[in-house]
Amino acid sequence: MSLVYFASARVTKWKFDDSMPGKLERLLDEINLSRYFERNEWVAVKTHFGSEGAHRIVRPTFIRKIVDKLKYLGAKPFVTDTVRIKGLDYLEVANQNGINHLSVGAPVVLADGLYGNDNILVRAGEILGEIAIATLIYDVPAMVVCSHVKGHINAGYAGAIKNIAMGAVSGSHRQCGWKCGRGSMHTIGEGELVWDEEKCTLCFQCKEICPLDCIDFKENKFTFDNEKCWRCGRCSRVCPEGGLILPGDDEYFMKSLAEAVATVLTTFKKNKAIYINFLTEIQPECDCMPAADVPVIQDIGILVSDDIVAIEQASVDMLLKENPLPSSLAADEKISPGEDIILSLHKRPYNIQIEEAERIGLGTRKYKLREIK
Q1: Which domain holds residue 296?
Q2: CA distance 310 to 305
Q3: CB burial readout 14-24, b (16+ within 10 A) else e
Q4: Model's pTM, two decimal places?
Q5: pLDDT tens, 127-139?
Q6: pLDDT interval class at 189 (50, 70, 90)
Q7: Which of 181, 295, 159, 271 is nearest to 227 (CA)?
Q8: Which pairing describes strands 273-279 and 244-245: parallel, antiparallel, or unpaired?
Q9: Does the first or last residue of the chain, that is N or C, have fewer Cβ atoms within 10 Å of its Cβ?
């Protein structure tokens, strides 16, 4: 049984120690960072920079607290993510969302370089074969994984597993392209986009949202650059008529997430990674989309553990206890109190990723919750 530390988002005393940043400081003291990180050791603080328009990320206030605690130990932290859009644009998005060296107190760098192809092929498993792990993640000896818990169009639930699987693996590799990147998790086989001309209304939203400018409509006919495309699926997600489909399989996808995490963690020695899940601003979509909807679940709090399976199971268990918020997508979908809100929104069997992570030895779903007051 693993230990998961928890601090509630509720504030009942008007003092810093009872604030969420104050509680995060105490959570980090409770888990005892010196058990994991050493003086002069480089530590990657892995988070998601968000998108232009998607602002409900892990706030820089919290990242700064983590950085300061690591620096107090004498460690050398940096804040990082992999390229989701063009590298310079992504750094500017991070800056617009408040993540820069001044706000977080540490360098902010791209783990796989400005072009997203600074990565190393690592043997994975039966599903993925080989995957391109970002070079900085591969090389760094220690990591703190800061995850914004939310919904996700493919994963259903997105927490620490999704953060590492999609965020520590590059979108593409110089030789094998998207098939060795995170796109291989999204699709089966060739995974080519399917366009239904009869459904298409030529709104061009798919073209506008493509992070790599892969899509074009020549003479009003859909075309895309098959070699350049990362298979991120944003184009099919925003199509209002369902005229664009990216083939996929839920079970394959969920299991591949766990396999990717296992592969990334092979580049770290034992007890060199901890996980922090922020159950705040729990929106229905990923932070990579160009907008952020209102939360569907009330803020719950912060979880910390050195067991990725335990923290994910604890996060899900907490979500299941909450009621849907009014005036949100959950209300639009008429989700009732007591229903699994995340499952009802996306119809994805998200538990498979956690079950598979346990099956392949990444941790245990049995946990003990220790709440700090």
Answers
A1: 2-183+249-371
A2: 8
A3: eeeebebebbb
A4: 0.92
A5: 999 999 999 999 9
A6: low
A7: 181
A8: unpaired
A9: C
